[in-house]
Design brief:
With about 300 residues, this protein is α/β, with parallel strands linked by helices. It has two domains: about 1-200, Alpha-Beta Complex (Spore Coat Polysaccharide Biosynthesis Protein SpsA, Chain A), CATH 3.90.550; about 205-295. The chain is built from twelve helices and ten strands. Strands 4, 5, 6, 7, 8, 9 and 10 form a seven-stranded mixed beta sheet that branches. The chain has a three-stranded parallel beta sheet with strand order 1-2-3, sandwiched between helices. The radius of gyration is 20 Å and the shape is globular.
Length: about 300
Amino acid sequence: MIPTYNCAHLLQKTIESVLDQDLGEELMQIEVIDDCSTDNPEQIVKDHGRGRVRFFRQEKNVKHVKNFQTAINRAEGEIIHLLHGDDYVLPGFYTAMLKMYADFPEIKACFSRNYNVNGVGEIIHTSALMQEKNGVLKDFFSIEVTDQFIQTPSITVKKEVYQTIGTFNPALSWTEDWEMWARIAKHYPMGYITTPLACYRVHDTSSTSSKSLTGENVLDLIRLKEILLSYCDTKELREKCNSSLNRIIFEFASKNYVAASKVDKKLSRTHLLMIIKYAPNFKSKWYHIMIYIRLLLY
């Protein structure tokens, strides 16, 4: 299932990455779910879908979380892969996933390592190696509540999981995927493939980039932290989760400040206040307070 919004120039690569390893109509449904884009993704599907790709368009723009929900609701298969319209998979992704579900029938979701790529597909980061061999991850929930180790194009999920524990949380605007994978990990065993088989695209027009200027990414991380803390069953895990999320909030607030300082002085002060609130120690807090005072004076 390929949810998309205003990234038609990248959608061809996404579609072709799936079609190049098409398992056949009897085994694989391929459908683009468009959130009322203005750049005509339907034409991309017609031109490059080889007659195998269905197209569904929302009647109005519903934002990405509800578009994901639509994709899940429209999925007819037992295993669902949400592949953003600007991401893509590498050869062998689907056969490797099917093998994992066959070899480890207890798993209800499975993800591979992934590459982060830029707008032209150059690799800029490779995700961490979680364990040395393909298999079931042990105690993955306690790891996932401390950081995001799964990018959406790299994971497949049994449809029964969404039917049982629900889908993406609409209260979240940026971290909904992290919360979803943590919730799954809390309830079900998850499989892991050591080979990078998916590419997550990072580029200037992505929602990730736009939310950094407004600070919505940090606000959503704060919402996420409260949800993840509610999932933690022990004091030790809550402290671990809280400490790690505070660090991540501070790091993103710092990045937001750097980005905003180039375009909007008033906005940069807002990010500085968040940095001060989540500073990891007194020295850091005082340093940023001094920067804030200088911005007020000059």
